[in-house]
Design a protein that fits this description.
single chain; TIM Barrel; eight-stranded parallel sheet; 14 helices; binds iron/sulfur cluster
Length: about 350
């Protein structure tokens, strides 16, 4: 494919926000700065120059699952486990609110210790303040998702990781691809803002599979898409695999922005971990959300999905200062809104 053909594809997608699979594959393979710049332009047209901030609370690193790529997998006996109490979680949410955050993300491994009633109590206490709550606590039943929604949860993150069923089931032992899809459908039907996403760089993953993932995001009408880059964790079965390709992940971010112009796309921590200033590059390629972990270093160092995570030695003031300093020169500023996915009337 020539540069001219890429230019034509970009002109067409900027007008109608649709791409077929072969066009996505071409852009994933050779989309260069033209692709990244087009995504940044679309992001500015639909979402302006604001960056939505999320306060991230990783409240437990216990997990009953054994995902091959993750340092928190139940079989990693070297992981130093912790679990916050109900009071600790609520008080961190209070801290986030007092610091001006309008959204808190409560994230954990799939920890069966907390009951749904306990989650509901936590949500109700946090919602005494005017703050949006995103949950990222794994697969639940329809009834459980419904209870959590009734308690006040606004959004839910559940990455599909890969839409290739064989690859999904290879790297997620004893988990069912169909159940993952069922969870996403349930969440949508209950009125959550739903986030999903993929892990770029899994061994055996092809460009065609990533293109299928991007088409899936559009098909399910996702509200948020998080694209991580695979980083090998030595105490996992994929510890000896090669890391994912940062530039490929960046192109996947940009293409996702082109076809879903008004959704929320975080510049993920993995992007910054794998490449210095990777977060800024993502923000210049269509991403518009930053999550800052507001817990103490004690917890941050132990939420070890992959090693050497960026930002674990910085406190909240330092992280905020660094973010503000980095986005100012590119003309972006931190939003003081909840940053919900407001479906734009510009959407085609
Ligand atoms: S990816 Fe999530 S569900 Fe899988 S082992 Fe890690 S924390 Fe558990």
């Amino acid at each position: 494919m020539t540069k001219k053909m890429i230019k034509n594809i970009l002109q067409q997608v900027e007008a109608n926000h649709t791409l077929d699979k072969s066009e996505i594959i071409s852009l994933l393979r050779i989309g260069g700065n033209e692709l990244l710049n087009a995504a940044n332009d679309i992001r500015k047209t639909y979402l302006g120059n604001e960056i939505y901030l999320r306060a991230l609370v990783e409240f437990s690193n216990y997990c009953c699952r054994t995902c091959y790529y993750c340092g928190l997998r139940a079989e990693n006996k070297n992981a130093q486990r912790y679990r916050m109490t109900e009071d600790e979680i609520v008080s961190l949410a209070e801290k986030a609110y007092n610091r001006g955050f309008k959204t808190i993300v409560l994230q954990s491994g799939e920890d069966l210790h907390y009951s749904i009633d306990e989650y509901c109590r936590i949500i109700e206490k946090i919602k005494k303040n005017d703050i949006a709550i995103t949950l990222s606590i794994g697969e639940k039943s329809f009834g459980e998702y419904k209870q959590l929604k009734s308690a006040g949860a606004d959004r839910y993150l559940l990455r599909i990781e890969t839409t290739n069923k064989d690859l999904y089931e290879k790297y997620h032992p004893n988990m069912s691809y169909e159940n993952r899809l069922r969870c996403l459908e349930d969440l949508k039907s209950l009125g959550y803002e739903v986030g999903t996403g993929s892990l770029i760089g899994l061994e055996g993953q092809t460009i065609e599979m990533i293109a299928d993932d991007i088409m899936f995001f559009k098909r399910i009408n996702a509200d948020m898409i998080g694209l991580g880059v695979f980083i090998p964790h030595p105490q996992t079965p994929l510890g000896q695999s090669s890391a994912g390709d940062f530039d490929l992940a960046l192109r996947a971010v940009a293409i996702t922005r082109l076809i879903l112009p008004d959704i929320n796309i975080p510049a993920t921590t993995a992007m910054e971990t794998i490449r210095k200033n990777g977060r800024l590059a993502a923000l210049l390629s269509g991403a518009n959300v930053v999550m800052l972990n507001i817990a103490d270093e004690f917890y941050k160092t132990k939420y070890n999905i992959y090693p050497d995570k960026s930002g674990i030695n910085q406190n909240l003031d330092e992280m905020l200062a660094e973010l503000e300093t980095s986005i100012k020169p590119i003309g972006y500023k931190i939003s003081d809104s909840k940053g919900s996915h407001l479906v734009s009337n510009k959407k085609t």
